[in-house]
Design brief:
Layout (H helix, E strand, L loop, with lengths): L24 H9 L3 E6 L36 H13 L6 E6 L9 H12 L4 E8 L6 H13 L1 E9 L3 H6 L6 H12 L4 E8 L6 H14 L3 E6 L2 E2 L3 H7 L8 H14 L5 E4 L9 E3 L6 H15 L9
Helix pairs in contact: 7-9, 9-10
Length: about 325
Amino acid sequence: MNTKITQSQTNPFEFSLDNKRYHTWNYHLNQKFGGKVFKVSINAGFTCPNIDGTKGLGGCTYCSGQGSGDFAGDSCKDVVTQFNHIKQTMHQKWPDARYIAYFQAFTNTYAPLEVIKQRFEPVLAQENVIGLSVATRADALADDVLDYLQQLSQRTYLVVELGLQTVHDQTAMLINRGHTYSEFLDGYHKLTQRGINVCVHIINGLPNETKEMMIETVKELARLKPHSVKIHLLHVLKGTVMAKQLESHEFSLLTQQEYVNIVCDQLEFLPKEVIIQRVTGDGAKDQLIGPLWSLKKFVVMNEIDKELLRRNSFQGYKFN
């Protein structure tokens, strides 16, 4: 039986299992549940108000046809079948783990309440499922859905994942995000006032954003102090509007060193209690146009570790 692991004696950061100088998702889950927990990604067949015409058409300019769920299950199969298939594959690496069902693709609160319940409840009932992660948008939270999420948060370990991407409305318009920062805050506060854990997603490298703008996004998050944050690198995928913009040289991609420095700067401004669920990501290899260096995800993560060590810095070092 796994037990909680104490802080590394060689690391000045207090919320750490090893050499990580930021508050990792793995550390948080190990401390909370006393062992390995992994997410099982599901495509429950929802759509998005920024795709169906309610808020916009075509989605965000970077969005693939999978609605940011490129590594989720097959939406042609029911959610329990998807869950069991992906769970068994991941068990090859972690045979004794428990699970968080991750409703990842598209907007997973954008449907009538009864439909949402029909997707969530069968998976939540599976053995050793200790929680749900629900990816959605801040402008797709009806009052009855919010009440249901509040009930879920009292029954299980629930994290609602909100895509923010940037606090800068001019960028949000450029990428066809479909909502403003003010609208994001409205949805965010509706969740937190109900005691619901919120993970906020941001993207580094969006068109026309400077390093200072990306830091400003994180400073805003530091003020909000969400439960957790996912820091993403912009991936340009085949068939997207952004792929055409990149081809016509309307913007350029970050280098690996630029990205590493930006992430380390951002971590320094985030409170140490905020969980960092992700510091990078990798697009589907057969769909990725760039940056191609992002395919070596563990190299990027190691470079972030090395840069924080070089600085003798850690998450929250500059948080006031």
